[in-house]
Amino acid sequence: MPITNYSVIAGVPVSGKVMAGASTHYQITMKAPGTSFTVALNIQSVDGSEVLYAIKEDFVPADEAALLGLPMGRTPLESVAGGLALDFVRETIDGMPMVTREEMTLLPQLRPQGLSEEEKMMNRVRSGALQNAVVTLLNMTIADKGGVIYVFGSAFTDKGNVYGMHDVHMNQGSPMGGSAQGGHGGDNGVWQDGGLLIHLPGKSTWMGIFLAFQTQSWTTDGVGNPA
After folding, report:
1. Is residue 66 part of a domain?
2. How far is the C-alpha of 188 from the C-alpha of 175, rounded, in Å?
3. What is the number of domains present in the chain?
4. Could you give the CA distance from residue 176 to residue 165 in angstroms, rounded to a whole number?
5. Closest Cα partner for 169 from 185, 193, 188?
6. By residue range, what is the domain housing residue 159?
7. In angstroms, what CA-CA distances link 73 with 96, 110, 190?
8. What is the distance in angstroms between the CA of the first residue and the CA of the last residue of the chain?
9. 221 is a domain residue
10. Of 51, 61, 26, 59, which is closest to residue 138 (Cα–Cα)?
11. What is the pLDDT of residues 94-152, one digit of tens each?
């Protein structure tokens, strides 16, 4: 089934930190009137599903007015074309794809065994590239009066109150089968991809961060499964 609670959260970033584990994430704390949210971004690769990322400067949202009109906090989204929902495979802006596989950079798999010290160092440098870029963009947003982050993904709750967002990445084209087969096919769907859009009004610009995994197909059927 598709991801649950597909939403966009609009807010102001407060801080960020690395959360290590089986799949290392960068956790962003955001605030909106009366509440705060945590956002989990994949920033390191794990064996079998390497992280792909694209950072698009001077990005132009498909519907800028609708985004700017959103209230701060969480807004549920319908997974349909013509709204604010994101779809890496199907969405176009001014006739061009919103993002393509070819625009994305591959983070290395973390395989320290058997590597020379120089190779280990290069692995760490390349793996930290996305984290450094995210930190830079967060600082730019904090410094820009009125800067807002719009995070798309699957909202999770605590006792009924939304307090976080995960699945902030492509959510279609995953191999079918369970995690033992390296797939998250149960999360596949169309018009439910995650992403992070940053509005910097002081610079009159937008930026977009888009994440995917190398195991995901960019050719999907009507329900988001690999075609």
Report:
1. yes
2. 9
3. 1
4. 24
5. 193
6. 13-213
7. 30, 35, 24
8. 17
9. no
10. 26
11. 999 999 999 998 876 555 556 566 655 555 555 567 788 888 898 999 999 899 999 99
